[in-house]
Amino acid sequence: MYVLRLGHRPERDKRVTTHVGLVARSFGAHGFILGDIKDDSVIESLRKVCLRWGGRNFFLASGVNSLLFIKSWKERGGIVVHLTMYGLHIDDVIDNLRKVENDMLVVVGAGKVPRIYYELADYNVAIGHQPHSEVSALAIFLDRLYGGAELRFIYPDAKLCIEPSERGKKVVKCEPREE
Ligand code: SAM
User: Fold this and answer.
1) What is the pTM of this model?
2) CA of 156 to the centre of ligand 1 (A)
3) 137 CB less than 6 Å from ligand 1?
4) Is the C-beta atom of 131 inside 6 A of ligand 1?
5) Is the CB of 109 under 6 A from ligand 1?
6) Whether the Cβ atoms of residue 118 and residue 70 lie closer than 8 Å to each other
7) 27, 108, 144, 173 - which has most CB atoms within 10 Å?
8) Mean pLDDT across the stretch 14-34?
9) Which of 84, 130, 136 to mutate to test ligand 1, by most ligand atoms within 8 A of the CB atom?
10) Strand runs (DSSP E) across the chain, as ranges?
């Protein structure tokens, strides 16, 4: 399962794009792609998180042509889920999506999303029908898809782990774990 973000406005959207990437990495995706815009600083800051908190195999790319990427994803048998407030309510499609065995590409927008993406998507899914954000939409979608299991996930190659504490911050070196 991979996440494609449809472009961003450099400077203005950098932080939000990084947060979309962080949600993708933390909540169970295998990779994050920023379409249409090359932004090495976003990719670099996500890579730094992967180095410390794990995910050296987490795929990261930017500057990919979004339309071509989606078309070739579909040609290779993958399915495309586009998150949009205009789509079908998550509650009405999540059972079907959980059964999907094909590779899944989850697409989120930045500015106005052109019509073609609605047409290419196998599913247009609404996380409720109110406008909010690509970060919240992706987080809720992945949480529903994985039923909350993703919140326990720790990457096998993580260098740092958190010891939960009622107060304060406890960060320890991770015990080596099976890949
Ligand atoms: N105004 C843009 C449009 O009409 O296409 C949407 C911009 S919104 C800030 C950025 C992205 O957040 C959207 O493209 C969509 O992926 C996601 N998003 C926002 N609200 C959503 C919702 N209720 N359900 C699903 N996705 C949502």
Assistant:
1) 0.95
2) 33
3) yes
4) yes
5) yes
6) no
7) 108
8) 97
9) 84
10) 2-6, 31-35, 59-64, 79-89, 104-108, 123-126, 160-162, 171-173
Nearest residue by C-alpha to atom 7 in ligand 1: 111
3-state secondary structure 119-158: HHCCEEEECCCCCCCHHHHHHHHHHHHHCCHHHHCCCCCC
- Is the pLDDT reported for residue 178 higher than 80? no
d(CA 88, CA 124): 6
End-to-end CA distance of the chain: 18
Instruction: For residues 17-46, give the mean pLDDT.
Output: 96
- Does ligand 1 come within 6 angstroms of the Cβ of 23? no
Whole-number Å distance, alpha carbon 124 to ligand 1 midpoint, is 11
Distance CA 59, CA 61 (A): 7
Q: What is the DSSP letter of 27?
A: T
